Amino acid sequence: MGGPGSFQARFIRVLKERGFRVTHDILDPVNYAILVVGGTKNILQLRRAQKSGVRIVQRLNGMNWVHRKRKTGIRHFLRAEVNNQILASIRKLSDGIVYQSVFSCDWWNRVHGICKANSIVVHNGVDLQEFNPVGPGSKPIDFYRMLLVEGNLGGGYEQGLITAVDAVKLLNRRLDKPTQLMVVGKVPHALKESVSSGDVNIEWKGIVRREDVSEIDRSAHLLFSADINAACPNSVVEAMACGLPVIGYDTGALKELVAAGTGEIAPYGSDVWQLKQPDVHALADAAQKVLQAREDYSKKAREHARAHFDIQMIADRYLEMLLASS
Predict the structure, then answer these.
(1) Is there a contact between 311 and 14 (Cβ–Cβ < 8 Å)?
(2) Which of 147, 197, 259, 324 lies in the 20 to 30 Å Cα band around 183?
(3) What are the residue ranges of helices labelled H in the chain?
(4) Using CB atoms within 10 A of its CB, is residue 319 exposed (0-12), middle (13-18) or buried (19+)?
(5) What is the pTM of this model?
(6) DSSP of 71-86, one letter per residue?
């Protein structure tokens, strides 16, 4: 759901359009380069391919960390720790690394040291034809719609939804029209029950098809990027490409993505790395500011996406790293 899968599908489509042959077989004898999207358990196969002259490039986002701050279960804890070790091991053997953001690069260098491999920072890309302001999806007239798009809002990531609900409650007391919260993604039933009340109109969209996301983006007035310390959320670049302004907290790479005039970034207001409670009033202030000048924000969001997040341009950067001499 979303995340690496969305990027991978877009990148493969561009590669095939340009005449490249793409395979998921690590040991295919005609491979020139391998792009590891995050991690893989097949590290021994990667080493074999590398010894035969194949170039290994790793695409890195962040690390698993929430499990160390909240009780998410022993299975989840162990899986998260193992995945972190896999990512770190591949980082050491790679010939090149593409970090999804400056935030991600600094984080890895701080925790694991600067890697010997050449590295670049490349934000995620989006198909500007698929994600654009024109097309199906109309905004409601009698209320504002705030959109929240996450793959999974459980497993320690519940706070984003709780914060969104609290922000909508504040907006309902401030604005000339009520605000609806639309939630896209997997939400545990118990969490839905805990945040549902008569005070907030919530539309639960659940898991949707990738091809439906652009229409949903066009049906909202603003996107709340709920993930904290995120490396480079696809939902943000997709929304901006559709002319949907973005609000969120100043954590992770969000300020790298949301330029001035394309949305509003609010101060978190407490220690995000300890998962302290955020400043909901600051988030509501950001939403209110965007809604009061939404057309200007929308235009600048689309312009910024065209200049910085075009998947064709992003693919060029990846190919520079993949096709370089080891």
Answers:
(1) yes
(2) 259
(3) 3-17, 43-51, 74-93, 102-112, 159-174, 189-195, 213-218, 234-241, 254-257, 280-292, 294-308, 311-322
(4) middle
(5) 0.93
(6) ---HHHHHHHHHHHHH
pLDDT tens for each residue of 173-193: 999 999 999 999 999 899 999
Whether 215 maps to a domain, the answer reads yes
Give the sign of the dihedral formed by CA 235, CA 237, CA 243, CA 249: positive
DSSP SS3 for 97:
strand
76, 155 Cβ separation under 8 angstroms: yes
Residue 79, domain extent: 3-125+310-322
Q: Do 151 and 120 share a structural domain?
A: no
Q: Do 317 and 202 sit in the same domain of this protein?
A: no
Give the span between the Cα atoms of 148 and 207, in whole angstroms: 12
Total count of domains within the chain: 2
Q: Does pLDDT of 10 surpass 70?
A: yes
CA 194 to CA 16: how far, in whole Å?
Answer: 46
Q: How far apart are CA 132 and CA 279, in angstroms?
A: 32
Q: How many helices (H) and strands (E) does the chain have?
A: 12, 10
- Residue 178's Cα: distance from chain center in Å? 28
Amino acid at 269: G
